[in-house]
Specification:
- This protein has 357 residues and is an alpha/beta fold.
- It has helices at 10-17, 21-29, 36-49, 54-62, 80-93, 133-141, 167-181, 196-211, 228-240, 253-265, 299-316, and strands at residues 67-72, 97-102, 123-127, 145-149, 161-164, 186-190, 221-223, 247-250, 275-277, 294-296, 322-325, 328-331, 342-345.
- It folds into 2 domains: 66-164 and 300-325, Rossmann fold (3-Layer(aba) Sandwich); 167-297 and 326-353, Response regulator (Rossmann fold).
- The strands form 3 sheets. The chain has a 6-stranded parallel β-sheet, covered by helices on one side. A 4-stranded parallel β-sheet has the order 7-6-8-9, sandwiched between helices. Strands 10-12-13 form a 3-stranded antiparallel β-sheet, covered by helices on one side.
- Helix 1 crosses helix 3.
- The N and C termini lie far apart (65 Å).
Amino acid sequence: MRQMSPNPTIHDVAKRAGVSISTVSRVINRTVPVSDDVVTRVEAAMKELSYVPRAAARNLATRKTNSLGLLLAEITGDFFDPLLAGIETVVVENGFDLLISTAGRGGPHDELPRSLGNHNTDGLLVFAGVLTPEAIARAHASGLKLVLIHQSSPPDLDIPCVTIENKAASFAVVEHLITEHKCRRIALLRGLPHNEDSHWREMGYREALEKYDVPFDPALAVPGDYKRVVAQKSVARMLQDGVEFDAIFAADDEAAIGALQALYAAGKRVPEDVSIAGFDDLHISALINPALTTVHAPTYEVGRVAAQQLIRSIRTGQADPLTLLPTEIVVRRSCGCHNHNGYTGAPEINASDTFIQ
């Protein structure tokens, strides 16, 4: 019987697994997607040969990878560009690498992706709605440093969170539609179900209606799901069903743009027939016609602060339990303010209204 080499190499692993050396490298470094079957074969060969990559051996000795992980459901739309830029700035400044993994739609998911975890990262940034509370709790229990983005910590865990003010800004936008433009039939394009930002934006909408004695009409609260196409279909359906409305508050700018498309397709004018306001202040929102009244969310700053908090937690074991960043109202033409195009200031923040209790 052929005697096994006392110091197996990557060539030995490739031969045992029946793949190329470059494929073994891809599996080890997670640089390029590899099929599950190939990953299983390569990992089995590594185990049989007791092969430990040099970088992995160093990591086992120091228990440090010098990498941070970022877990998102997907990377689509303009929203994530400033978030990633903020994270990347801090990661590079501090000499870390950044591993980005997308869990895919249909979450929240109950497991971390294979590429993330204690053996591959020193800490993990988790975006809202990607993992179940149970999965977050298990990752926390494993000793992995976590910072949550736009999502509060599961009960009794005190995982640091970075988010924005939602409720007061949404209230202010709807109040503006009521008081300045005399709107009484204001449709709501909701965000994603069970999403904390969505919840508080709807609460701001409802409280503004209540303050000005405008009845809440369930027929006016329809799905937007932070998706242009979903919002477009919802608004088109309301128009087809004869639902009357004179304004739309969308839980995000993507949905507001979808609403604008549906209104134009139906021959409606904005803001003459219907006023529109959104949330996020995407780059495109100032460029469309008419320019979109919205809420400026400091998305770059969210990414920057979240990365800072994670690195601080890794290095010192300390991080702020909650970072609540202010938002600002941006009044443009889509609501009907033809002579106003700029920031009107930040609403007062009430930290007790930050999370769903």
